């Protein structure tokens, strides 16, 4: 071989750079393949993020490979672009589902859940600041667009790779297809169609969401007590102060979970004995909440209106309707009605719907102490302010009050001590206690064992606070109904928890308790496992029926 022939076979001066580009290209292709496989297989349920979940062959990838091999060049590129965008949208939806599942026990609803982003942004605005809210929105948009771009580019790169290596891609398709068909039997996790099933489930949910407005209108078309005259409403409660308190995140797991229940049920048993010693009777059951992990306002609206409110669209439709609420019923029957809302820190125009003569927002309650986590003020202060501003007044009407309590709201990182009621004052006494401004989402960065212990402690505090209030300020004309609004986050309950919450009624007047004897509730403020479970939307009519007349025989559309 001549010298010149040898010279021609020597690598070009830029060969190392070319080799580097080839290696980088291969690495990029491998990463694109892994990314596409990941988004096809990844579950939206974070608890299923285990290694075995990713040892599967997605049928969607095989179908995509077939399209790339059989389509002509131009349709192939169009299919790759459309498929990449669709897969990107599916990935963003999986991320949103994971977030909703972790907090609300359910996937994101493409039709009904968009209005929830408004309250979420408002929450960030109030708790962290306006710029933080703007930054959070901007970051969410950038991340969503980033996922769409990366997914689309990955699919298009893999399409070009298959075009260049058709024989190898064809052999791989045959092998993988045979493996998928062979292993597509029950109990074998290798064969996967999770992405297609995921898309199908959301398509079904979209159809249901589009029909939900009509379903809601049908549910509210007949309002059994709408035309009942005021003198005929709540006749068995005349002269009584009736207080409805919603204990944040007080769910069935608090009284039945082996890790949570011993301390909580001990506090409930102790409370039942104290109430009995003070001359009070109590009975308890369960309600099934329309929400879990969050969305307290939907649970409260459900109980007060007698309509199932499990999404924000229903809530918005409800508060613009003329549906009779428990507040309206008491108002028609000549009670003074108040909403004590320590969690409301800004304008709340929909509050007018609930039939309150007066609404006390957080800034109206005069609290001068620190925040304890999410809670703007301790439960004891909320009840003390209500007593001071309403029940302590002389020459007044009977009062009906709705009071959501916040001390048992996530993140449960700081719980105040119970103090003497006469020392509560303006809340300055709480400045000497360890407080916290931790946000609810901080629970996901803490030890789950500690989170559960803190949750348990907060429920015990809230229950003891209510029992102590009745002991201190109760009389023959006090009736207290307290219940949970929803179960806590899945970090506390684990996967598959029910949506049941305890509910109790407390009164000294035997005639009041006799009215609810047919409900089948257990004695005391702890419901047993066999206690009845009602839908929360059933409570309004059962309560109005028990303490007043039957609804009119002829009813009319709710308008």
TrEMBL record:
SUPFAM superfamilies: Alkaline phosphatase-like. The chain crosses the membrane at residues 23-42, 54-71, 78-96, 131-156, 168-188. InterPro entries: Alkaline_phosphatase_core_sf. Keywords: Membrane, Transmembrane, Transmembrane helix. It comes from the Bacteria. The keyword Transmembrane helix applies. Gene3D superfamilies: Alkaline Phosphatase, subunit A. This is Sulfatase.
């Amino acid at each position: 071989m001549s010298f010149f022939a040898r010279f021609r076979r020597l690598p070009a001066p830029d060969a190392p750079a070319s080799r580097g580009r080839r290696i980088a290209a291969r690495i990029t292709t491998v990463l694109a393949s892994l990314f596409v496989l990941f988004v096809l297989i990844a579950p939206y349920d974070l608890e299923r993020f285990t290694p075995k979940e990713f040892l599967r062959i997605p049928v969607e990838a095989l179908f995509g490979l077939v399209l790339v091999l059989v389509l002509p060049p131009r349709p192939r590129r169009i299919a790759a672009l459309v498929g990449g965008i669709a897969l990107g949208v599916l990935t963003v939806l999986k991320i949103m589902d994971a977030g909703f599942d972790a907090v609300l026990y359910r996937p994101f609803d493409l039709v009904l859940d968009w209005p929830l982003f408004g309250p979420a942004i408002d929450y960030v605005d109030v708790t962290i600041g306006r710029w933080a809210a703007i930054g959070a929105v901007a970051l969410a948009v950038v991340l969503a667009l980033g996922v769409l771009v990366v997914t689309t580019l990955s699919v298009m790169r893999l399409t070009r790779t298959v075009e260049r290596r058709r024989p190898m891609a064809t052999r791989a398709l045959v092998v993988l297809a045979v493996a998928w068909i062979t292993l597509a039997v029950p109990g074998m996790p290798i064969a996967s169609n999770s992405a297609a099933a995921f898309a199908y489930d959301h398509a079904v949910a979209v159809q249901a969401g589009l029909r939900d407005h009509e379903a809601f209108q049908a549910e509210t078309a007949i309002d059994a007590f709408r035309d009942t005259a005021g003198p005929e409403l709540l006749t068995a409660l005349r002269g009584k102060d009736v207080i409805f308190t919603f204990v944040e995140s007080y769910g069935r797991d608090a009284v039945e979970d082996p890790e949570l229940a011993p301390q909580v049920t001990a506090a409930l048993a102790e409370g039942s004995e104290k109430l009995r010693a003070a001359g009070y009777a109590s009975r308890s059951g369960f309600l099934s909440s329309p929400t879990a992990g969050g969305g307290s306002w939907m649970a409260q609206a459900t109980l007060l209106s007698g309509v199932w409110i499990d999404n924000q669209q229903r809530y918005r439709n409800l508060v613009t309707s003329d549906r009779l609420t428990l507040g309206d019923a008491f108002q028609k029957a000549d009670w003074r009605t108040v909403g004590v809302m320590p969690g409301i820190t800004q304008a709340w125009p929909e509050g007018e719907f609930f039939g309150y003569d007066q609404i006390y927002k957080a800034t109206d309650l005069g609290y001068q102490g620190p925040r304890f986590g999410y809670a703007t003020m301790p439960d004891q202060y909320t009840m003390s302010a209500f007593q001071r501003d309403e029940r302590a007044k002389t020459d007044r009407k009977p009062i009906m009050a709705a009071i959501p309590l916040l001390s048992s709201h996530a993140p449960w990182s700081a719980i105040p001590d119970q103090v003497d009621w006469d020392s509560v004052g303006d809340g300055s006494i709480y400045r000497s206690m360890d407080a916290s401004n931790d946000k609810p989402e901080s629970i996901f960065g803490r030890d789950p064992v500690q989170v559960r212990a803190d949750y348990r402690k907060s429920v015990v505090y809230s229950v003891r606070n209510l029992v102590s209030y009745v002991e201190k300020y109760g009389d023959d004309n006090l009736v207290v109904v307290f219940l949970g609004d929803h179960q806590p986050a899945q970090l506390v309950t684990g996967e598959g928890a029910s949506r049941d919450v305890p509910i109790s009624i407390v009164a000294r007047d035997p005639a009041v308790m006799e009215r609810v004897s047919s409900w089948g509730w257990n004695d005391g403020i702890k419901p047993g496992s066999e206690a009845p479970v009602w839908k929360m939307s059933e409570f309004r009519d059962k309560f109005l029926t028990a303490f007043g007349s039957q609804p009119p025989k002829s009813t009319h559309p709710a308008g």
